[in-house]
């Protein structure tokens, strides 16, 4: 049984997330997903649109995911120890340097393979792109309404 661990924010689920999780699942027999806690999302990315528990429920409902739970603040290596995966699947756009991550895991006595998935070419494969498209559409409609009212 090969256990794969994937992690991410998963705010506004989109095709890029599905692509990542499908590829991660193909790396083994069981896929466990760590959904970033709100505090870490705020600290490293942006204000989350959806709360952590909601994001976790959505990810856990996907058929390729065997188990999902909200991560916690602190040392990221603690959660790796708890899950004890055979493989860590990194998203193509996650900021981890694979070699650095492998070294840090080895320093802590954690033996795990680190692999990166390939890029998703589908449109709107990023939460910030989706948000920007919504803002652009809103602005376009507002401008159209102003022009119509003149």
Number of DSSP strand runs: 5
Shape: elongated
Order of strands across the main sheet: 3-2-1-4-5
Major sheet size, sense and barrel closure: 5 strands, parallel
Q: Give the quaternary arrangement of the chains.
A: single chain
Portion of residues within helices: 40-55%
Overview of this protein structure:
With 150 residues, the chain is an alpha/beta fold. It has one domain (3-120): 3-Layer(aba) Sandwich (Rossmann fold). Helices cover 46% and strands 16% of the residues. The chain contains six helices and five strands. It has helices spanning 15-26, 38-44, 52-60, 76-83, 98-107, 127-149; strands spanning 3-8, 30-35, 67-70, 87-90, 113-116. It has a five-stranded parallel beta sheet, with helices on both faces. The model has no long low-confidence stretch (mean pLDDT 89).
Q: Mind sketching the topology for me?
A:
Layout: E1 3-8, H1 15-26, E2 30-35, H2 38-44, H3 52-60, E3 67-70, H4 76-83, E4 87-90, H5 98-107, E5 113-116, H6 127-149
Parallel strand pairs: 1-2, 1-4, 2-3, 4-5
Question: Care to give the gist of this entry?
Answer:
The protein is an alpha/beta fold and 150 residues long.
Pick out its properties:
Rossmann fold, 16% strand, alpha/beta, 150 residues, five-stranded parallel sheet
